Amino acid sequence: MTDIIASPAVKEAVKVVMEQQERLGDEAAAEARESQPIRTSVLRAAQLAAEAEDHARGRQHVKGKLTARERLDLLLDTGSFEEIGRFRGGDINGGRAGSAVITGFGEVFGRKVAVYAQDFSVKGGTLGVAEGRKICHLMDKALDLKVPIIALIDSGGARIQEGVAALTEYGRLLDQKSALLRERYDNPSLLQVLPEYDLRMAQTGALVISYRARYVKALAQEAARYHREFSGDSETLELTYRTVSTVTDPFAPPETLCAQLQEHQRSHARAELESAQCLSGPHKDDFEAVINGLPVAQFASQGQTRTAVISLKLAERALLRQGTGETPVLLLDDVLSELDAGRQDFVLNQLREGQVFITCCETDRLTSLGQVLSIRSGTIGGAQ
């Protein structure tokens, strides 16, 4: 079985602990374990690894499927697999052997390759923070060594609750792929790993789109409420999420979004090579704001535009408060210009939740709500 736990060094450590148990007895062995905690941890890790593989076989074989490690055994030359990050994403003390992906290096007919295999027996093989970091780390090493990457996919998708972390991972993948495209002429061999980057960016990008679609929907609801109050019920603000053209429904399951992103990647593959730029993916996403059915960018007045921006800021603050239980400090710099009297009143007298700092240059617009600080020639005056 291709597992770091099966290495001679680990086997020897386990053997020493077991012999110590038999020779000294339970009580003396317990004292020895306290003086040599690393050996005990190694034994516990070995037990967890064995239990995890037994669990994987139990879940996969009944479906007529192989485990992730069994698939690696069939792919790689015998004894060539060297695993990295075996317990990353797990918790030895908590009884979790690792994450839902296995990463490492091996050989195929004597040629060195990087490989990762999704383990369906762990959280359905779904991808989260730990899995993304392991795969990115493997890709970094593969680029350094200039070896191809092989992916064995068996997954239920991605974990939507980890969307923010997925955005961070996507940004890292984007930087790596962009660097790869820029160096394609100096190092043509780097293009061998391009399909793996496309696959991982599609998987991670699908999660980003799914998360963004839900966030923009929640943001639109809050922003519309604030904008109605702001404008005295005279205007309706709507937001529309714009993503990759092949994505027909951003609320679709991540696996559907992934397939649609891959379709877009294929249609832009040649253009990416010619331009040395990454042209496909959610890094080009945007949203459109519409007031009373007309796009803000083309038809809104300066006052309407400013109203929409403030409504979005208030909506963001409301969502952060819902998510964290804390109300962020709101900073509004010179927002009163371009606003009519009714909208100025909303900013000055109706924003009563949390701490709000408002700057303006017109003294006739000061409010009796809160404190007023004057700044002249860089000096802050007393509170009024």
Give the neighbour order of strands across the main sheet: 1-2-3-4
Spatial separation of the terminal alpha carbons: 76 Å
Q: Taking Cα atoms only, what radius of gyration do you get, to the nearest Å?
A: 28 Å
Number of E strands: 11
Description:
With 384 residues, the protein is an alpha+beta fold. It has ten helices and eleven strands. It has helices spanning 8-35, 37-61, 68-75, 129-145, 163-182, 194-230, 254-275, 296-299, 302-324, 341-350, and strands spanning 82-84, 101-108, 111-118, 149-152, 237-242, 286-291, 294-295, 330-333, 356-359, 373-376, 379-383. The protein has a four-stranded mixed sheet, sandwiched between helices. A three-stranded antiparallel sheet has the order 5-6-7. It has a two-stranded parallel sheet with strand order 8-9. Strand 6 and strand 7 (294-295) form a beta hairpin. Helix 1 (8-35) packs across helix 2 (37-61), helix 6 (194-230) packs across helix 7 and helix 6 (194-230) packs across helix 9. The termini are far apart.
Question: Quick recap of the structure?
Answer:
The chain is of the alpha+beta class. Helices cover 51% and strands 14% of the residues.
